[in-house]
């Protein structure tokens, strides 16, 4: 009898937590917004951590962030319908790697730049864009994703360059140099006043330029391309259509895309 009660309480707690993370009720939406704000604050810390590392309070903040991230991972795992399957998802494995860099900041210092990938992970999960959909601005999601992808790459590359080429004894000035080099490489400006030494430096520069150009093209397409809605055609499966489309441009099937004026 006692085990049955404990099992019932356990199940109810999981359902309640699952509704908070994935529900659409006002209390669940407030909870999700609070989680998103905390995630963005943590990402801001990740961006600033290379220049904060020498401060006395760095380890306190670092371990506090590790505790928050660990609690969030544990709560999501507890709420998952299949915890073991959930733990094998790429985004979860990425969070576990980030958690490891927080728990062992000195031992895994060379992998600290991977923390910024959490911004991309949050973007891919949709958590950043749900408020836009609720507020009636879904058209901002596509350019927003492109901006997040570009910003993630900029800070990821900056962190890698700073850790690999500029870290020792350079402090804030070294981090700014790494960011400056990344931006000039991504935009293919190439002033040449700061270069990466050796063969690995040249290879790193090539990779940054190639990926950076692709992300800039993607951003330009997202900003200037006409807005399209995600509405799978029931006949051919084409995903993206003009917001006012009546027929699918691929197969001609009649579409019923809802808009604000639909009844």
From TrEMBL:
GO terms for molecular function: voltage-gated potassium channel activity. One of its GO terms (cellular component) is membrane. The lineage of its organism: Bacteria, Pseudomonadati, Pseudomonadota, Alphaproteobacteria, Hyphomicrobiales. It comes from Aurantimonas aggregata. The chain crosses the membrane at residues 28-48, 60-79, 91-113, 146-166, 178-197, 203-220. The keyword Transmembrane helix applies. Residues 151-223 form the Potassium channel domain. This is Ion transporter. The keyword Transmembrane applies. It holds the Pfam family Ion_trans_2. Keywords: Membrane, Transmembrane, Transmembrane helix.
